[in-house]
Every structure is written in C-alpha cells, then in structure tokens.
Design brief:
This protein is mostly helical. Helix content is about 70%, strand content about 0%.
Length: about 140
C-alpha cells in the first residue's frame, strides 16, 4: 500500500529532519577535528560512587554561591529575570539547550523566591502576576 504524504505530515517531519541533519553536521565536524588532532574517543567508565561524589561536589557549589535572596535586593529581581531570559533565548538560538534549561531553572527559582517573599514585599500580588505575564508565565 502506498501512502501519500499530506501537507501536515510534511510539516511535522521537517523539524525532525532539520534536527537530524544538524546532528550529522556536528558529528562530521567532530570527526574531522578528532582526525586532525589524532584524538581517539574513549568511553568514560565511572563507578556509581564516583558519579555521586561528582554531583555532590557540584551541588555543594550552589550553597557556597549563596541564594539569589542573599545576593540580590528585591527590586533587582525583575532585572535579573529579564537578563536571564535574554541569555536563555540566546542559548536556545545557539542550540545550547542544556545551558538554556539551566537558565530557565534559575528563573523559576527566582520567581518562586519572589512568591515566598510576597507576604513581606511592599509590591502587590497583581504587580508580580503582571511581571510573570510579561515573561510569558501564567499567574
């Protein structure tokens, strides 16, 4: 049986095709770099204990930096969110999705902190919900 692709089928397939082609392009670049510099890729082998230790070190680094609540004054949160959002969109545009996700997570942490501090804040709840809507978030 022959199936004729509809316009909708093609529309849905194009983004996947682009992603696959981008992966192939990057793989070709990496292979050429490896060949030029005589690099032989090897699988990293770590025990579960080594992995847990590495991630605990990364997690402890967050505590040393201090929380956004300690670093920034309340009036600076919106500026910080706007800057993080610009960086996130730029990272996504550069196909740096892990960096974009990390920035998104930081934004969500700051928004949550703003909500917690809401009872102590001089700003009204409606002001905060307007700021969230400007950033594309529901109140």
């Amino acid at each position: 049986m022959i199936r004729v692709l509809s316009r909708e089928d093609v529309r849905q397939a194009l983004p996947m095709h682009r992603a696959i082609e981008e992966t192939r392009r990057r793989r070709r670049i990496q292979l050429e770099y490896n060949r030029k510099h005589r690099i032989i890729p090897r699988t990293i082998v770590k025990t579960a204990q080594e992995i847990l230790q590495a991630t605990s070190v990364a997690d402890s680094g967050k505590d040393k930096e201090g929380s956004p609540e300690e670093i920034f004054k309340e009036t600076e949160y919106e500026d910080m969110l706007a800057r993080l959002e610009r960086e996130m969109m730029e990272a996504a545009g550069n196909l740096e999705f892990e960096k974009a996700a990390s920035l998104r997570d930081r934004m969500e942490d700051i928004i949550a902190m703003m909500a917690i501090q809401g009872s102590r804040s001089s700003r009204s709840k409606s002001d905060r919900s307007k700021a969230r809507r400007r950033r594309g978030r529901k109140s």
